Inverse folding.
């Protein structure tokens, strides 16, 4: 799961978008390495990106995805950071879902995953990470979502037993991957520029480079 499943999601989004009509904006698909060693791969990209970060519209990062089935909600990591959260809420509602702020903020996941390298450079970001909070699962509700986190983190997180299992129900993971596909298409065929909230610590960096926008 951490993070071959997220990698599969990135590749699937790339496959679907490539098979469709070209977007008006470019999309970079990246698979970072050495996150656990200090975000080494994503930091290297932030230093030497394919396209300048001041004209990079947004970053969407797929990390751990829950494997316990369909969910009624989407877990929002780092609530209050950017206007991308409004876009996420809108697309989630199209799926009949709602946003739930992460209920394990003490784990500091917003500051630990690869998207953070781009956030520090001013790029608005969204992270989907299944261990940020128990999902409101269609089967079992929030209690079942919390139990999935307890089982995964307690047994196989960062351990060799984190491997594919025939017991996985990937319905919820597919929901989240589809969210990002729709968001990419929406932004990729628009002229919108998501921005940081006024209270975000990353806003000043973005403002300093706004003049570079086309």
């Amino acid at each position: 799961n951490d993070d071959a499943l997220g990698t599969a999601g990135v590749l699937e989004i790339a496959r679907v978008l490539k098979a469709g009509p070209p977007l008006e904006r470019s999309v970079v698909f990246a698979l970072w390495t050495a996150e656990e060693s200090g975000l080494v791969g994503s930091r290297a990209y932030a230093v030497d990106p394919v396209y300048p970060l001041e004209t990079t519209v947004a970053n969407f990062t797929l990390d751990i995805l829950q494997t316990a089935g369909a969910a009624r909600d989407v877990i929002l990591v780092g609530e209050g950071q950017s206007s991308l959260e409004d876009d996420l809420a809108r697309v989630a509602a199209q799926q009949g879902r709602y946003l739930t702020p992460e209920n394990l903020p003490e784990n500091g996941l917003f500051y630990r995953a690869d998207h953070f390298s781009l956030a520090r450079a001013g790029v608005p970001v969204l992270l989907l990470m299944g261990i940020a909070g128990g999902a409101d699962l269609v089967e079992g509700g929030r209690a079942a979502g919390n139990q999935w986190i307890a089982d995964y983190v307690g047994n196989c997180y960062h351990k060799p037993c984190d491997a594919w299992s025939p017991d996985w129900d990937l319905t919820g993971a597919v929901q989240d991957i589809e969210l990002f596909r729709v968001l990419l298409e929406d932004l990729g065929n628009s002229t919108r520029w998501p921005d940081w909230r006024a209270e975000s610590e990353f806003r000043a960096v973005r403002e300093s480079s706004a003049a570079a926008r086309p």
Q: What stands out?
A: The mean pLDDT is 94.
